[in-house]
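Cont'd.
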Amino acid sequence: MPEYQWPAAEQRTLIGKRISRVDSPEKVSGQAKYTYDVKRPGMLFGMMVRSPYANCKVVSVDTSAAEKMPGVKAIHVVQAPGTQVHWQGDEVVAVAAVDERTAEDAVRAIKVQYQQMPHLVSDAEPPAGSAEEQGPLSEDDIGDMLDNQVPARQMVEQIEKYGLTFKPTEDMLNDAKGNGATDDILQALRSATVHEGTPAKPKSFYQKAAAVTQGDPDQAFSQAATVSEGLYGIPVITHCCLESHGSTSEWPADDKLFVHISTQNVSGIPAQMAEPLKIPASNIRVHQDHVGGGFGSKFSPDRWGIVTAELSKKAGGKPVRLMLERDTELKVAGARPSAYARVKVGAAKDGTVVAWQSQSWGTGGPGGGGMPPIPYVFNIPNQRKEHTAIRNNIGPARAWRAPNHPQAAVLTMCAMEDLAAKMNMDPLEFFQKNLGITGPRAKTYGEELTIAADLMGWKQKWHPRPQNATGVVRGVGLSLHTWGGRGHNSDCDLTIQPDGSVQIKMGSQDLGTGTRTCIMIVAADTLGIPLESVNLLIGDTMYPPSGGSGGSTTIGGVSSSTRRAAVDARDALFAKVAPALNAQPTDLECVNGTVRVKGDTSKSLTWKQACAKLGAMPLTVRGKNPDRTKPPDLTNSGVGGVQMAEAEVDTETGMVRVTKMVAVQDCGLIIDLKTAESQCLGALIMGISYALFEEKVMDPTTGRMLNSDMEFYRLAGLSDIPELVVRMMTGKGYDERGVIGLGEPPVISPGAAISNAVANAIGVRVPFLPLTPDRVLKALEQKAGA
Amino acid sequence: MPNDDAKKPDELSGVSRREFLKISSISVAVPLVAGPQMVMAAGEEVPVYGPGKVPIELTINGKKAKLEVEPRVTLLDALRDSLDITGAKRVCDRGECGACTVMIDNKTVYACSMLAIEAQGKQITTVESLMQGGKLHPIQQAFVDHDASQCGFCTPGFVVSCKAFLDKHPHPSPDDIRRGLSGNLCRCGTYAGIREVIAQAARRGA
């Protein structure tokens, strides 16, 4: 078994350089085909009748009028009478018709009666004493959790912690499996403690989700020189992928399904569709060339994806496309859980943080949700934490870039900054002072803070909080963040043909992060051939399986397996070529389109000549990453990043403008510096967007989302974007750690850094994001009245 | 705007509401798939289409295309679903995000907010026309150079907007850029690159 490593810095020809992404020409010319653009022969258009209510029971469904309409080819009842619906916009009946307008007419002709039930869409602070301990889980509870897409890990935890009110039968387990239960969940159900005869507790909206004590917080607070108390929060926001969720399904044969789907998880889709459709996963082919955004919300085929297959089956196998309309996309296809907290934090006289206390709450929709990892980055020695999960009817939560970390950053970094302000300390010095409790990335944070301060001009810009802010004022703020990002399993086949052409097949996907480009860079750098001569095929289940693109695992995964495949293929080629060059295989290198003897350039073959030595048959090797239980070699885990923001606030109108942002980030060895910088720039921009504008606004009376369009669900525009400075940490101390993911880390800190900049500008904390004019004015008023 | 307020809404549109209702009632009587019927409205001859599919002719990137669509079909859906011209994307479908931007007679238009039947007799230019002979337009090349696309779903709309903007403002100020490109939205956060695109293209006088 050869040992794999990355080439030394001086030998890298493409790795770590600024290289333009390979699929840009397709995208800028409008030729790139997304799932939404795929038009299959004879394709029908799918559309849904959706629940207008946030909590209701389906009483009756009458599809008779729609069935008689010309052009309507299939109708499928998704939630039959008797089913309870937990959020507005949930799927009730699906139709497929010859064109979209006919489908729309059919949807209007379907009559559904609902029985409305009381709903909760608020995530305001739970009334004191309202949070209940969860009792043993009933069969309904498990069904609800599966329906509501509660993450597997969370389900397993709850099953283990609370037990069940019933003994699961094999039939029940099969049903659960068909309903999306993973093997982990099934195992937990099998081995759960059973409290038979225990009545299921009537469910409260409020559930005690965590209560943790570490050290001796009471004593630490009593001895602290300064204690700061504050209220902080970050609301539910949506993913708002520009390409909405959706798919096109067709049955080329009775038991064979072909799916085009907008996904972050090409290889993982068949296993999720097989059970509900009752066909083998290996009979399902999934294809996707490009995806118009995912951000954590596109790992599952979703109920509407299964429905396209059901509709297609009813329509004789014809392709059925169903892409969500924009309002539905914002209502049902992804929401980041909210998090709010009353935080008390204390420090010794020298600025060392000694104690943390938090009562936090938040909602992830019907599933509730867990406590963000607070206090974030800083492992404060004495802590007391309680978290209440609100189970409400705003729609299901989904992973949103760096799940739970942006929330944790706001709750922690804002409380820390308030404490520094109360101690009249510069927060930069305060953070530096406390780096000792940040764990293994302390040295990285230290280096990054110095660089970031220099790039921001922190020393010139920071000032103590003003007593009275009038007119237009400016301030600066900072935040730290961390993430894992070890590469996932990602198999690939690399083939070298006797004519010298090179092809890689991998069942991965490129979310617009530059995955294609990076795979090609690694292969070309390793084989010493030009980037363009690598023929890369991704986005299909016909290729070796590659993990879903989530949790910043893709770059580490695809670059590692590609490097392994390329090294093995290169060595196999060397073995064939060595006799012709009168050398040992280990003496050979491939550089600049040649295969030659190291240190003797006279003994050299062109790449083409060398590959001709393969004979008649191509050479194919499988690149496969080591089991995750083994220590990683080409990839790694754990990054640190620092961000600083400068903001300008008009104290008369409450308008906030970000005027400059700095991101300093490490991610181990960088494959493509250009796309890495773009990840950080994009994350800063997305961060400005959620810090200033984004919030899923719900109407408490009707239970409906009030801003399910792109006018009132505001994304930042070009005019909202200030000077952005990105500095990647590379070179010694960073490169040798291997490749680490970058999708999540830089999007974690912007909210906290911008909130801190606004507090520094106006002299008072605006408790909740987004920092809208009304909230800024309210904070200023309260300060004036205090 | 006191003058506008003083006007009755009916006078602003050129077609009075009463006359519009008359047109609607006439249109119901028109048979399926037929050429437009002409009626007198506000002293002018106005074509009435539909309600079924009607044959129309569109001029897209200099080429004529004949198709049959219901009058309620937008230009965007006609391009994408009837003609398989998919560079313009459907994102918000109500004139908020700019992903479907095309040019009509050299003005940028949200293709989701215009009916296909309205676009007849006009020059429709889509992103697909910019690349000539396999070579990217300088603005497209600038998008590549400055990595101004990530997922790329907003990119075609932005490319068309940038082209139209630079045609009008060859030497834009930062303020011009902020205002001129405020009609397009991106989710991945490519605005920094797009600003560089404009700067590069402006320097080259594209």
